[in-house]
Amino acid sequence: MNKKRAGCIGCMISLLFISGCWDSSEVNDIAIELAWGIDDAPNQKIKISAQAIVPSKIDGGQNVSSSQSGKGKPYFVITSNGVNTLDAVQQMQTKLSRKIFRGHRRVIVIGESMARRGIKEIFDTYSRDPNLKLRTDVFIIKNDTAKKFLQISYPLENVPGIGVLGEYDQIGTASKEMGLLNFLLAAASDSACPALPVVAIGMNPDVPDEEGRQDPAKSDNEGFRIAGSAIFNKELKLVGYLNVEEGRSMRWVSGNLRKLTVSETLPQGKGNVSMDIIKTKSRIHSVYQGGRLKIFVTLTGRGAIRENNTNLDLTNTKNISYLEKALNNHIEEVVTQTIIRVQKDYGTDVFGFSDAIRRKDLSLWKSIENDWGEEFQRAGIAVKAKMTVRRIGVTGPSLQLNPKEIKK
Amino acid sequence: MRIKRRRQSVRDNLANPIDTAYLPSEPIAELSSELSANDKMLREAFQGCSDIVFRPIHTSPKLLLIYTDGLVDTKTLEKVVLKPILHEGHSSGSNSIPITRDIIQEQLVAVSQIQTVPTIDDVIDGILKANIGLLIDGENKAIIAELKGFERRAVEEPAAEVSVRGPRDGFTETLRINTSLIRRRIRSPRLKMESVTLGRVSQTDIAIVYIEGIVSRTVLDEVRNRIGRIQMDGVLESGFIEEFIEDAPWSPFPQIQNTERPDVVCASLLEGKVAIIIDNTPFVMIAPMTFWTGLQAVEDYYERSIYTTFIRFVRYSLFNIALMLPSLYVALSTFHQQLIPTNLLISIANSREGVPFPTFVEALLMEFMFEGLREAGIRMPKAVGSAVSIVGALVIGQSAVQAGIVSAPVVIVVAMTGIASFAIPRYNFGTAYRLLRFPMLILAGMFGLYGIVSGIFLMIIHLNGLRSFGVPYMSPVVSPVPHNLKDIFVRAPRWMMTKRPPFSSTTNVRRIPEGQQPSPKKGEEGQ
Question: A246-408 domain in CATH 3.30.300.210?
Fold first, then answer.
């Protein structure tokens, strides 16, 4: 019996040694890829680019010797063509000594031509593959290819692909790293259309200074900026762009904005004022009136006056309500223009109106569901903004003004 | 069953030759009334024992004084035994009153503990237990008087269980001092100390200590039973007995607590546990032990409860770290790189560039070396100890990383694990975790997180099956009753812990009356 038991234990122990370990891979046997580019390629193929880090050239850690080996870029970009993503990855692997590791991808960028071709056919693997995470942000590269975007460097980040995430966060989006998920949700919805943030290469295109004008190539080769939003239709084809301001309005209406700063020049106050708005909210409700849909958007927000280039004394509540009114007018105007522009130019519901109507008024939705596209284009829009100033900063009037100039 | 029986017979075979060598041919030899015959028998028994002193005294009748040199206080012996017999005995002898046993026992020998014994064996026994033996010609009974005077260590602060606040006395190697330390804390006749002698050769004194009325009868009976079953030649440390009476000898977890602190023993006795004191060791065993006592330090009960609750949280976190950190590192960095934050993964990748070993081997190597360093630090003479730590810190901490043989994160992980494992308050409980770290590491190296989870499941299953003297090892968490959990994850203030732990007696559950929470209102009432 003892022999039997020893035999059993021996078998079990040897079982341990013959199995296992095949999934393991050392950290220095994988190429960690942080940004991923998809481009159009001839013959209905796609071109995949990956921005992988070069660990030994990353700063920090104990690698003092890296300075001797010559400090190069801490990342590199490889590119391959293929019928679909996995085919391209297999092609890519022939150029890499380490297995490409896609579990840490933070950014997917799509070149403009690819976006115009439509991304419905290539997006399956990004939600099917268990190694990939849904918490990835997707960006469209305006007027350029994804490969080009991955190749340029960014001054603040070691790996430039991460930089775009930070920029995206800074413009006040409410759902950082939820881009892919939100995109898939919107794409799968009956009527809503997805919108994706847009990145343009070059940091200072609209602030032309002396240097920039002399050497446009140089300023364009470093960095990138968020340049609004891209509008897709139901076929997941790019139909057009919104600029940054319009993109912000769109996000506010659809409830994806965390914070923003609104600046307005006052009509008679001889000056301008800026307000930091947090706690932004939007409410959408709708009625069917006179043969056409009417959509009411109510935007609310609370915030602080952070800049006041007027002679108004903000300790006076009358002045504050005056400012609130002016800001409300400004917001209403901008948002209305944005919605109307999307209605007229693209006709795609990127604001999530359809979902809001369905949630609030199912019977109304049932009646207009079939020709939503047309109804949306014809719908009347009324935007109402209600801003509340909660704080005015540490001073009432501007301190540099003579007390006589200040308007109580 | 078969294995058990065989083990028993092996034990008997080993024990028997010793028995025959030691014991006199006739087990019970009566003393004869002839002093010379007794003298001869005793000299035969003590043949070759150079430390046994035979001192014949030629009074009338003749006396023979026997004692063990070094165990008996010779100065007192001279003062209270020899002087009265030689001087006063003579003077009374001139009045021709013969010295009889009764006179010696009642008048001459001024020793508090004195008894008469009828057999040679009792005499031998008494002499070896630091008594003096006095044989009188013409009497068939001998006098055994206690005159203990051997070297004993003073009561010092225990080295292994230090506390900032609390009593500083610790047990010593002498049973009587140890029992006195307990008796001084619990001055009740209900504190019982049953005496047992164990070890056929060593004849070691053992005391089973408990408080009548609080102790759990089942546990006490079990302790008596198991100690009674032991057959061994010598008991030199409490560990000798522990291995015979524990429930699961192959478990890495200790099932009997040991301590050097009398306050810990007294607290356990008041909770209804049983203490086993063994002569010649300062370590006292307490049964039953639960998993949670392994994570409680003595100071938990002396510091304020809020602070203690926080420290317990720290301790519980650290003991999880001690068990799992290296294996988690290996599992995450070789199987589940997705789970590491990106920046951390990048710096791990950076420091792993050019390291020749796989992460698993690296971690195993460093853990192994750390255990070696710890072991060397304990065993080395104190003068060399500092050299060990310098070499260890330099070689392992710095040079190995700089030479690129191991990566820095592994060193950090091993160091954190080391610190965490030292934060487990009971030393023998900490050893269990240090031991289990290695199987966990191997499981992690083979199966990743799956391996770690299976390892933890196995451990939990094992722990839940474990019992210590009939008490579930994980109690009271296994069948939680709210009031029992007041001393597990938190440490409730003393006035809230009104009941004793559930494993002790069912009759005397209430420890203190309810409603003793201090408040200003009560103070006013008092005035």
Answer: yes
